[in-house]
Structures are given as C-alpha cells and as structure tokens.
Design brief:
It contains 26 helices and 16 strands. With about 625 residues, the chain is α/β, with parallel strands linked by helices. The protein folds into two domains: about 5-185 and about 220-420, no CATH class; about 445-620, IlvD/EDD C-terminal domain-like (Glucose Oxidase, domain 1, 3-Layer(bba) Sandwich), CATH 3.50.30. Strands 9-10-14-13-12-11-15-16 form an eight-stranded mixed sheet. A four-stranded parallel sheet has the order 2-1-3-4, sandwiched between helices. Strands 5-6 form a two-stranded antiparallel ribbon. Strand 11, helix 21 (about 475-485) and strand 12 form a beta-alpha-beta unit. The two termini are about 40 Å apart. Mean pLDDT is about 90; it is low at about 270-295.
Length: about 625
C-alpha cells in the first residue's frame, strides 16, 4: 500500500529539520560500533573486574571464546505491580543465553516509581523527572561497555521512555525491550470511576472506596486501563522494539516465559538454528560461537529508531487514543536519537489518522479486552494496509514491521508461532480503518492567546468539545478540591490550575482533579480544565487543555489570567482563548508565583535533589528534558 501523502510529507519535513542532529548522532554510533569488543579492547584489570563474578564456564565463553554478552537493565521492584514479575527474569535470560552459547549479566537497575501510589501527593513532583533519572541510570548501567546487546526490563509510565532515552545514548547496541504484561481484569474501570465520583460527593466513605480500588488493582501486571504504561507498550510494538505481540500477554500465562526467552534469541541471533564450532581467527561479526551476529539479525537501536519509526509511534498513539504524556515523552525520545519533532507534527497526523480503538478511558473496555479483540497486531496491520505506517523500517526482527501484525501462540510442543489477527473480535473495542470510531485521531493541538496546549478528545463527548465560561483560577489542585467541597463550583466554569509546569514544581499529574470535575459535568454544567500541568494517561471525558506552554512560572500567559475572565476552549477549531480585549490583555501584568507557594516548592520528600532539573527543564513541548 502506498504511504499516505500526509504521513510521507511530514516524515520528509522531520528528516530535513533533523538532518544535522541525526547525522552527528549516526556518526557517533559508527565510531562506537567499529571498536573491538570490550573484552579485547579494555585493559586486563578492567576485564577481570567486569567478569570476576561470572561462573567459570561463562567467564571462559565471554573472555576466551569471545561469545556475545548481553547487558540486562532492569526496573524491577515489587512496589510496582507491573514490574514485580521481573524478579526472576534475569535467571530466565541467563539460562536461555547459555543455551545459545552466550552470556548475560545484570548491568544495572533503574528506579521505578508508581504514579498510582504517588498521585496527588508531593512525591508526584518527582515523577516526570524520574524519566531523566532512569535514562541516566540506564547509561550508568551500560557504561561498563562490555556488552554486545541489551535487554531492557520495564513497562510503566516514565520507565519505558527513560530506558529508551538511555539506550539511545548507547545506540550502537542491539536492544530489545522485555515487558511483563497487564494484570488480569478485576473491577471494571467504569465501575471504579463511578465509586470515585461517589466518594468525591461524599456518598460513599473511605472503606467503600478502598474496597473498589483494591478490586480494580488486585494483582501483578500493569493497570488495565489504556494509560501511559499500556500506551508505552503499544508504541514499542509499532517501533519494532520488542518481540511481536508481547505487550499484553498476562504475567503467569504459559506464553509469557517463552516470549522472554524469545527476546534473548532475538537480541542474539533471531530465530536461526545454532551451528557448531568456535569462531576462527579474529572475531567474526557474522557468527560468534555459533551464534549469528547481533548486528546481522537485530540492528542497533540507534538505527532502528529513525524518523520513520518515530512517525509510526505517533500514528499508533493517535489511532488508539493513547496517553497525552507521550506528547512530552516521545519528543524527548526523538531528541535522544537526533530527531526533532513538535506538537504541530502530532496535530498534522491527527487530522488524517483514524481512531481505531475504544479502550478505557476512551471506552468501557480494558486492555485485556483490547488484546482479545485483536490487540496491537490488528491495529498495526490495519494501519500498514491503509498506508498510515512506514513498512520499510528496521525492526528487531528479520521480517520487519509486518511481523508485528501477528499474535503469538504456542504449538503442542510449546514452540512459538504467530497467527493472523484476522478481523476484529469486538467492534465496540477495535474497528478497521474502513469503519473507524472517528476519521481523525484522539489528540488535538490548541493554540491561542493562552499559549499552546494539547487536549485528548477521544473520550470527550461531541457536545463538550466547545466550552465558553468564566474561569476560576487556582494555584494548586488542593485549592480546587477545597472550592469543590465548599460548593463554589456549581456552575459553568473553566478551572485554571497554574504553577504546575516543569520549572515550577516538576509538572505533576493532576489526575485527582478528574472525579470532582466529572461530578460537575455530570450535574449538567459546562466544565473544562486549563493547566500547565499534566493529566494522567487516564484523562477522559472532561475537556482538559493541558501542558500549556509557556508555563506560568516562565512568565507564560496563564500568569495573567484573573478570576472571572471568560475563556473559550474549542477542541474542534483547535483554539484556546481568554476573551479579554487585546489592549487590556497586553497591558495586564504577569503575576509572580505566590511567595508561600514558591517557598514551599521543592522542599521535602527528596524534592530538593531535583532542583537542578527544574531549573534546566525545557518546555513541555520540547520534552521537558533536563539533559539538553
């Protein structure tokens, strides 16, 4: 299928604007890849330290026989339900590597915080910048520089983007992501949301709310709504960075361990058979100890992630109504690979990419139902066949992106194979390109005299996409909660919550605002949120203009808004305006951050350690990166 002209034109523009950065990046990759392996390149003391703790047979393989050595970077902790299954993955990976004549070492661990735990608490102010900490920890892990490939164990919100950014700084290494899958379905997301709204109104108490939350979040695996964590997995599939169809297989499923073993086979040699005999002469990159070259069968990640791969990720995000957080994260990911994208690019694609999925919060289904209906394989096939995805991309598999249209299965002997996704098994969840839920994507760029922002429209009812109402200005989400509880918001209102950007306080998610705003909307009021902060990947039916840039702390226009100003949010037209006369608006002073707020910002619970990141953070549209 011929590539859609808008996708093709946009990709060309990204390629042209990124040419200098990308060329410099690829040059660094070439230099790194052309070096001798670490065991030959380093001094004897360095080599001895690197492999001192290896079992004797592994040490013989990697040092004397020059077998490939895989670096494992793990985000394991058992605080995150999604990451708890990773506890035993290194043992599985090492065992599989040995069977293939290779070795594997845990290169390092990266921190991983759960936004579900920290949501609405001061610790959430560490959340966004934890992505950059994870990127740095990944770089530290791989800096031992004795690896021929890497396996990255991570799933959740900031963890996958952080791992990916870190790995791209070692872009000469073939790299495969290894997920753990979603938890099985518990209390439905709709039922959970209803109890939250009842709790916000005081209709149920803490005991009832905790019971509902515990029934929803009940076991190992990712949360079952289509938030940032599960959007991560969808994007990795579309970029060809993990074993096809791995994303949404539940932890503990019979297929799960075999898919992890397949990740080892993928990073080492693809699916070919092992041949006997040691290498002859100098290291042969096409066969090492019977293992086909990682370069020949699994390309370096820095070459897999190019402008076409980034566009494919953007398209799939829009087609599935994925998390708004990726309008920040994937900008930073692209920059790590020498590629420059912005929100205009997302907006351009959103005008032509159809919405194919309805998964909570954009529908009632959870990710297990999404998987059962056809999952990533169905989505990628539909978009490929309609010309919305680049088919001519490198992936971690010899079959290219087309391999990612299959669904993994096992035969009677337990061997993996992939079957066609076929037609949608549930068209209330997944639809073909020929009959989408919407002809355009699930995200929209808003422009106007309040700056630039984004809105997730895939879950917003059509009659709620244009809101014009007097605003109420808040300096914190706690202040909004107090006003709601005091019945001060029972009217048409645009709630402005400012001082929530990267430089102000680290740009926490404001997901705790969803229940009270949903209650107001449910009473029939026209309600919207405007903020320079983030909403969760679970943001839904309340129209929310988020990531407003420039932020208030950087003298952005939100710092000029006053209580009672009339604000118009029009998601259809793509505008966000304060309806104040131009002369008055231009003459209006920019309010400073309240002194009490400024004094309290960044103090306690480790927030002081992130002061440098807040000072150096780029805008949300530039990925809020602190390392540029």
């Amino acid at each position: 299928m011929k590539l859609h002209p808008t996708v093709e034109a946009l990709t060309n523009r990204i390629r042209e604007r990124s040419l200098a950065r990308r060329s410099a990046y690829l040059e660094r990759l070439t230099i790194a890849a052309d070096r001798k392996p670490g065991a030959e390149r380093m001094g004897c003391a360095n080599v001895a330290h690197a492999f001192a703790a290896l079992p004797a047979n592994d040490k013989l393989r990697v040092v004397s026989e020059r077998a490939p050595n895989i670096g494992i970077v793990s985000a394991y902790n058992d605080m995150l339900s999604a990451h708890a299954p990773f506890q035993h993955y290194p043992d599985i990976i090492k065992a599989e590597a040995r069977q293939l004549g290779a070795t594997a070492q845990v290169a390092g661990g990266v921190p991983a915080m759960c936004d579900g735990v920290t949501q609405g608490t001061p610790a959430m102010e560490l959340s966004l910048f934890s992505r950059d900490v994870i990127a740095m920890a990944t770089a530290v892990s791989l800096s031992h520089d004795v690896f021929d490939g890497a396996l990255l164990l991570g799933v959740c919100d900031k963890i996958v983007p952080g791992l990916l950014i870190g790995a791209l700084h070692f872009g000469h290494l073939p790299t495969v992501f290894v997920p753990a899958g979603p938890m099985t379905s518990g209390l439905s997301n709709n039922a959970k949301a209803k109890v939250r709204e009842q709790a916000a109104q005081g209709l149920v108490g803490r005991a009832e709310l905790l019971q509902a939350e515990s029934a929803a979040y009940h076991g190992a695996g990712t949360c079952t709504f289509y938030g940032t964590a599960n959007s991560n997995q969808m994007l990795l599939e579309a970029m060809g960075l993990q074993v096809p169809g791995t994303a949404f297989v539940n932890p503990g499923a019979a297929l799960r361990e075999e898919l992890t073993r397949e990740a080892v086979r993928t990073v080492l040699r693809g699916k070919g058979s092992i041949t006997a005999g040691p290498p002859q002469g100098d290291r042969d990159r096409s066969a090492v100890h019977g293992v086909a070259s990682v370069e020949a069968t699994c390309p370096p990640i820095g070459r897999v992630v190019d402008e076409r791969s980034i566009v494919n990720a953007m398209v799939v995000l829009l087609a599935t109504g994925g998390s708004t957080n990726h309008l920040i994260h994937w900008v930073a990911v692209a920059r790590a690979a020498g590629i420059v994208i912005d929100w205009d690019d997302f907006s351009t694609l959103s005008e032509v990419v159809p919405l194919l999925a309805r998964v909570y919060p954009n529908g009632s289904a959870d990710v297990n139902q999404f998987q059962a209906a056809g999952g990533p394989g169905f989505v990628i096939r539909e978009l490929l066949d309609a010309g919305f995805l680049h088919a001519d991309v490198l992936t971690n598999r010899a079959g290219g992106l087309r391999e990612y249209t299959g669904i993994p299965a096992a035969n009677a002997q337990g061997a993996l194979h992939w079957v066609s996704a076929g037609q949608s098994k549930d068209e209330t969840v997944l639809r073909p390109v020929s009959a989408p839920f919407s002809a355009t994507g699930g995200l929209k760029l808003l422009r106007g005299n309040l700056g630039r922002s984004v809105i997730k429209v895939s879950a917003v009812p059509d009659d709620r996409r244009q809101i014009e109402a007097p605003c109420r200005v808040f300096d914190s989400q706690e202040a909004l909660h107090r006003a709601f509880q005091a019945d001060e918001l029972n009217r048409d209102v645009v709630c402005v919550v400012r001082w929530q950007g990267p430089q102000a306080n680290g740009m926490p998610e404001l997901h705790k605002l969803t229940p009270p705003l949903a209650v107001l909307q449910g009473k029939g009021f026209k309600v919207a949120l405007v903020t320079d902060g983030r909403m969760s990947g679970a943001s839904g039916k309340v129209p929310a203009a988020i990531h407003v840039s420039p932020e208030a702390a950087a003298a952005g226009p939100l710092a000029k808004v006053r209580d009672g100003d009339l604000i118009r949010l029009d998601a259809s037209a793509g505008t966000l305006q304060v309806l104040v006369g131009e002369a008055e608006w231009n003459a209006r002073a920019i309010e400073p951050m309240p002194e009490a707020l400024r004094a309290a910002n960044g103090l306690g619970l480790g927030r002081e350690l992130f002061a440098g990141m807040r000072r150096n953070a780029l805008t949300a549209e530039a990925g809020a990166a602190s390392w540029f």
